[in-house]
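step: validate -> pass
step: tokenize input -> pass
step: predict -> running
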Amino acid sequence: MNRLFARRSQTARPITIWSRAVALAVIMLAAALLPQAARAQGPGQASGTTTNTPSGQPLPRFVSLRAGEVNMRSGPGVQYPVDWVYRRRHLPIEVIAEFQTWRKVRDHQGTQGWVHQTMLDGERTAIVLGRTRTLRAEASSDARALARLEPDVIVRIAVCPKDGGWCRVRAAGFEGWIRRVELWGVRKDEAVE
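step: predict -> pass
step: emit ->
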């Protein structure tokens, strides 16, 4: 089985009072500078968006991982420890907050942490949820089956009409339609073109 991410082993190292004070000051500064709407976003809250961000992009939003190995840190900076290492390029990630060049992200399992903006790509992907799903030739449950997609397969989103319950995706050399509710990486009322 392909591991999506692995916990980074942490070695014991002494923490001085000075380093604790610096870390506390950075955390307080980050909390003060984060947009209030981004701080208020909880794990299941995706209703409102804000564009008062360093990137000018709305929050929350979906992106994907640019590289085959991406560190997720406990805070917005290289001084924070690495909590997880993602080992899957194009994995969909939800950006829920921003601080300078750092993005607070959440994955499809609810894990949250900070990733540098250079490790993220605007390409829209999604991950197949639950059980094996059917990729169809048309946006209909009666349409001809093209392929069966296993759970955790990453698909590239071609189009998701705003009012439709289906998305056109590409995966493993096939292009077809899959129900939106069978994917993580696109909101139920979002249009992707």
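step: describe -> The chain is about 10% helix and 35% strand.
step: cleanup -> pass
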